[in-house]
Specification:
By secondary structure, this protein is of the alpha/beta class. Helices cover about 45% and strands about 20% of the residues.
């Protein structure tokens, strides 16, 4: 009999549901909330309200696409954290209620755990992914920037993390200063394709070890624009593509420099990349080039799995279910939670 996991993801502003059977993705439905665009960032209260409206239709659609009924579900996996507490509460409450209603086990999943295994996701027509442990995962998103040594499905060590802002946050906040839409990282990536990445330079962090810092780049960027706008009120409009290309290059270079250092320190050349920023075209190109030049094996997720999604939650739920790990109804979501 097939093991089918219903995954539910609601950590931020994406309401997502997925059906994964015997380790294969049958459906992965994502409803991205558009209401936050006019505010230039996610508004927590609005996000939780939108999750309440979206979660039932999203789950129904996931079941329909997968051609499954609730009676076919073996367990319900949901994101227990980290994330926005109000958003997490919607997903966890729904998962608990459904668990009771259909008498199926409940499995709480760490959102970050899901991200570091996104390159394992396969649909029915794709070949199985053969894991090669250990590998290094560069997890880079709006809320997290980490280098993780992954030893097996449940054993990993964070060997580098940001001491302040995440890379995705730096992209989004700089984009807001430029007057671009939300999410800003996507807009910067698009405009940077027609720009000169060597034209402008910003202050890079000088952090020892494998830890990251992006607050200094943001500050340098802000002061740079302030000084240039004093000389030319139309500086941003006249140089937007070059500004975006230069900023993107600086942030991505910082990410890659630390990753290269981690490879040299550990000797591990199996590299995966995950999180929203893994969809960035410049990062994907640079890593592919470096991997080819240095004989690294680079694993990049499909772009649909780069951002928050329920398929990765269902996958971890599948691993836990096979190991007999389930949770009771006392499990509570946590806004802050580590690997």
């Amino acid at each position: 009999m097939s093991i089918c996991i219903l995954g539910i993801e609601s950590s931020c502003d994406d309401t997502s549901a997925s059906i994964l059977c015997d380790g294969r993705v049958l459906s992965n439905v994502i409803n991205t909330q558009q209401i936050h665009a006019k505010y230039g960032g996610v508004v927590p209260e609005l996000a939780s309200r939108a999750h309440q409206q979206n979660i039932i239709p999203v789950v129904k659609e996931a079941l329909l696409i997968a051609n499954k009924e609730l009676s076919d579900i073996s367990a319900i996996a949901f994101t227990k954290g980290p994330g926005l507490l109000g958003s997490l509460l919607v997903g966890s409450s729904f998962a608990k209620a459904l668990s009771v209603a259909i008498s199926k086990p409940l499995i709480g999943v760490n959102h970050l755990h899901g991200h570091i295994f996104t390159h394992f996701l396969r649909n029915k027509k794709e070949q199985d992914f053969k894991a090669k442990f250990p590998y290094l995962c560069l997890l880079v998103s709006g809320g997290h920037t980490q280098i993780i040594r992954v030893n097996n499905y449940t054993d990993f060590d964070v060997i580098g993390t940001t001491i302040d802002d995440a890379a995705g946050e730096a992209f989004d906040k700089c984009a807001k200063v430029l007057g671009l839409g939300y999410p800003g990282g996507v807009q910067i990536d698009k405009l940077a394709k027609n720009g000169n990445s060597d034209r402008f330079k910003f202050g890079k962090p000088k952090i020892t070890g494998l830890d990251y810092s992006f607050s200094g780049i943001k500050t340098s960027f802000l002061y740079f624009l302030r000084d240039e706008l004093k000389k030319n009120n139309d500086f941003i409009k006249d140089n937007l593509n070059d500004i975006c290309a230069s900023l993107q290059s600086e942030i991505i270079d910082v990410l890659i420099e630390k990753l290269i250092k981690a490879v040299k320190m550990t000797g591990i050349t199996e590299i995966s990349v995950s999180g929203g920023v893994s969809a960035n075209s410049y990062l994907r190109t640079k890593l592919s080039e470096i991997g080819k030049d240095n004989n690294w094996n680079i694993y990049l997720p499909e772009k649909i799995y780069a951002t928050d999604n329920a398929a990765m939650v269902a996958l971890i739920g599948y691993f836990y279910y096979l190991d007999g790990k389930t949770d009771n109804l006392n499990i509570s979501p946590q806004a802050r939670i580590v690997l």
